[in-house]
Amino acid sequence: MMSKKLFIQTLGCAMNVRDSEHIIAELSQKDDYTLTEDMSEADLILINTCSVREKPVHKLFSEVGAFEKAKKPGAKIGVCGCTASHLGSEIFKRAPYVDFVLGARNVSKISTAVKTPKFISTDINYDESDYAFGEFRGSPFKSYINISIGCDKKCTYCIVPHTRGDEISIPLNLILLEAQKAADRGAKEIFLLGQNVNNYGKRFSSAHEKIDFSDLLERLSEIDGIERIRFTSPHPLHMDDKFLNVFANNPKICKSMHMPLQSGNTKVLREMKRGYTKEWFLDRALKLRELCPDVSISTDIIVAFPGETDAEFQDTMDVLEKVRFEQVFSFKYSPRPLTKAAEFTNQIPDDIASQRLTRLQSHHNEILDEIVAKQNGKIFDVYFEELRANGAVAGRSFNNFLVQVQGSEELLGKTLKVRITNPKRMVLYGELVE
Ligand code: 5AD
Ligand code: SF4
């Protein structure tokens, strides 16, 4: 019999990318599906959704509407991921042609879901932390590895604890096994995933040796064949000295750190329940720059959180100026269902939010232009992973700059020295050093 075809669209974060890999693995091993990029020939169309802001939720309904029009007769449509968790059966009401709804953290039930009419499972406390998923990897060059699921923080703007449940760490032996598998298949990079990776070891679902994130990093770095270790997202609150020292001194840990600031103002941070102050954040970021001069620091910023005054927003601009982030992901605050901040009565009008976002982004672009200009002439070790248009190949420097050179697939999977000759904001263009 010919295998069935699966089309899958993934929105949201790296956690979702990994969940989609698990879905593909389960369906190909248990139900004989193979992937297709052509929706019209698919027997099963899946969308793995994100809820973090309102926009991706709207996108879900426009996308499934388009699926319904484009699909071949008899093909099924499934909605997975964070929005499946928080909207649940409402998805059937708004889009009756959807065949099943499978929340984040329920991925191991996918094979049952596809066979059960109107299947729905959105238990955010479902524990699949030691479920042995089948193997599927979207990239031969790097392996995503979940190290924890869920989130125990209760940031007042954030829906994730309501879609991914409580935080549970994955047992060390399973993580080591995944990393060894990565090394065995020749993937030189592992990318550790969790909502608060540097809170690793706080809680396991069964008895486990005491271990923290720094210890985990050291253990993983002992695996031969693994040359690069990345992770996301760490929380600024848990960036203790031990962690910063291991980060700076372990030669396999890539020198790029995501430090989600959210706001630079201590009062706003308190209302967000972030657990740190402006001073703590600055202290950690500047200490990191001191310990690790080559580090790139990226961040997430929310502007116009309820009640944010212009003076408070100015503190965010101040942190931007002092830390000089290499990359900033910035968002207008978006009220989310089930969150505390959505009930705050001092919501900020959209025009003010837009102005702040523009001010933030244009100031960051100025900073970025200076950072980028300084890369000219530098030589980076680039791990090539991606073919690009017009005979170009791209990869990442150890400190996470996207670097592109002219070349062909024989560069893929290799780590080579590149001299930057034409640095731009999004890509540093360069040439191989002979
Ligand atoms: N509104 C705007 N941005 C949000 N984020 C999370 N929740 C919200 C929200 N309600 C942002 C945060 C987080 C990133 C993944 O998305 O900056 O770090
Ligand atoms: Fe989106 Fe957050 Fe869910 Fe990731 S965890 S898919 S960012 S809502």
TrEMBL record:
<dbReference type="InterPro" id="IPR023404">
    <property type="entry name" value="rSAM_horseshoe"/>
</dbReference>
<dbReference type="Pfam" id="PF04055">
    <property type="entry name" value="Radical_SAM"/>
</dbReference>
<keyword id="KW-0819">tRNA processing</keyword>
<feature type="binding site">
    <location>
        <position position="151"/>
    </location>
    <ligand>
        <name>[4Fe-4S] cluster 2</name>
    </ligand>
</feature>
<keyword id="KW-0949">S-adenosyl-L-methionine</keyword>
<dbReference type="InterPro" id="IPR002792">
    <property type="entry name" value="TRAM_dom"/>
</dbReference>
<protein>
    <recommendedName>
        <fullName>tRNA-2-methylthio-N(6)-dimethylallyladenosine synthase</fullName>
        <ecNumber>2.8.4.3</ecNumber>
    </recommendedName>
</protein>
<dbReference type="InterPro" id="IPR006638">
    <property type="entry name" value="Elp3/MiaA/NifB-like_rSAM"/>
</dbReference>
<keyword id="KW-0411">Iron-sulfur</keyword>
<keyword id="KW-0963">Cytoplasm</keyword>
<feature type="domain" description="MTTase N-terminal">
    <location>
        <begin position="4"/>
        <end position="119"/>
    </location>
</feature>
<comment type="similarity">
    <text>Belongs to the methylthiotransferase family. MiaB subfamily.</text>
</comment>
<dbReference type="GO" id="GO:0051539">
    <property type="term" value="F:4 iron, 4 sulfur cluster binding"/>
</dbReference>
<dbReference type="InterPro" id="IPR013848">
    <property type="entry name" value="Methylthiotransferase_N"/>
</dbReference>
<keyword id="KW-0808">Transferase</keyword>
<dbReference type="InterPro" id="IPR006463">
    <property type="entry name" value="MiaB_methiolase"/>
</dbReference>
<comment type="function">
    <text>Catalyzes the methylthiolation of N6-(dimethylallyl)adenosine (i(6)A), leading to the formation of 2-methylthio-N6-(dimethylallyl)adenosine (ms(2)i(6)A) at position 37 in tRNAs that read codons beginning with uridine.</text>
</comment>
<feature type="domain" description="Radical SAM core">
    <location>
        <begin position="137"/>
        <end position="370"/>
    </location>
</feature>
<dbReference type="InterPro" id="IPR038135">
    <property type="entry name" value="Methylthiotransferase_N_sf"/>
</dbReference>
<feature type="binding site">
    <location>
        <position position="13"/>
    </location>
    <ligand>
        <name>[4Fe-4S] cluster 1</name>
    </ligand>
</feature>
<keyword id="KW-0408">Iron</keyword>
<dbReference type="InterPro" id="IPR007197">
    <property type="entry name" value="rSAM"/>
</dbReference>
<keyword id="KW-0004">4Fe-4S</keyword>
<feature type="binding site">
    <location>
        <position position="50"/>
    </location>
    <ligand>
        <name>[4Fe-4S] cluster 1</name>
    </ligand>
</feature>
<dbReference type="GO" id="GO:0035597">
    <property type="term" value="F:tRNA-2-methylthio-N(6)-dimethylallyladenosine(37) synthase activity"/>
</dbReference>
<comment type="subunit">
    <text>Monomer.</text>
</comment>
<feature type="binding site">
    <location>
        <position position="155"/>
    </location>
    <ligand>
        <name>[4Fe-4S] cluster 2</name>
    </ligand>
</feature>
<feature type="binding site">
    <location>
        <position position="158"/>
    </location>
    <ligand>
        <name>[4Fe-4S] cluster 2</name>
    </ligand>
</feature>
<dbReference type="InterPro" id="IPR020612">
    <property type="entry name" value="Methylthiotransferase_CS"/>
</dbReference>
<dbReference type="InterPro" id="IPR005839">
    <property type="entry name" value="Methylthiotransferase"/>
</dbReference>
<feature type="domain" description="TRAM">
    <location>
        <begin position="373"/>
        <end position="434"/>
    </location>
</feature>
<dbReference type="Pfam" id="PF01938">
    <property type="entry name" value="TRAM"/>
</dbReference>
<dbReference type="GO" id="GO:0005829">
    <property type="term" value="C:cytosol"/>
</dbReference>
<dbReference type="Pfam" id="PF00919">
    <property type="entry name" value="UPF0004"/>
</dbReference>
<dbReference type="InterPro" id="IPR058240">
    <property type="entry name" value="rSAM_sf"/>
</dbReference>
<keyword id="KW-0479">Metal-binding</keyword>
<feature type="binding site">
    <location>
        <position position="82"/>
    </location>
    <ligand>
        <name>[4Fe-4S] cluster 1</name>
    </ligand>
</feature>
<dbReference type="GO" id="GO:0046872">
    <property type="term" value="F:metal ion binding"/>
</dbReference>
